[in-house]
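Obj.: predict assembly geometry.
Materials: sequence records (below).
Method: joint structure prediction, all chains together.
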Amino acid sequence: SQTIHQWPATLVQPVGSPLSLECTVEGTSNPNLYWYRQAAGRGLQLLFYSVGIGQISSEVPQNLSASRPQDRQFILSSKKLLLSDSGFYLCAWSVGNAYEQYFGPGTRLTVT
Amino acid sequence: DQQVKQNSPSLSVQEGRISILNCDYTNSMFDYFLWYKKYPAEGPTFLISISSIKDKNEDGRFTVFLNKSAKHLSLHIVPSQPGDSAVYFCAASYTDKLIFGTGTRLQVFP
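Observations (raw structure tokens):
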């Protein structure tokens, strides 16, 4: 069966520090991968999605970036965090043309 | 511009009764709709979905209704159970992306 991992589970970082969040999927090949953010009191905002290695589409211009160095690995990065980057970050996957996306456990990021 | 709206931020229902969660959308190009359930500090879990060519889909205690003319969908949970207490998100599919609503917090009390 398919499994999605995210780490770390929680992270507290000072403003201006770098960020690297990692997501890996097991049990499937060539998944579509997604990064979402849930800010306090808001819905899920799509940040990036990828249909293959090295293929990244950005939905919201900001100081975050994403990379997909391997088929089942998706990384969210920032060179300098802002206070507004605080939130709950979720990685998700889907397969082929399926509509359903399946989410990881999330990372709670607090920028201080 | 919020294309998917959940206008009720919270809902409280007695155990055993029906819970009805509502969702409105503005984009007639959406072709598939989904409901997710989310517990605190966890990722959302897929619950049930419906294609835009249907008006009803049922899975056990959960039924989703779609009214395309009104651009409205609803999730019915019957009977409601305390374990159903969570935040429910509706989502709509456009091309290969999902657009989520802001969620409705459901509380089922004894």
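Conclusions so far: The mean pLDDT of chain B is 95.
To do: check interface contacts against the pulldown list.
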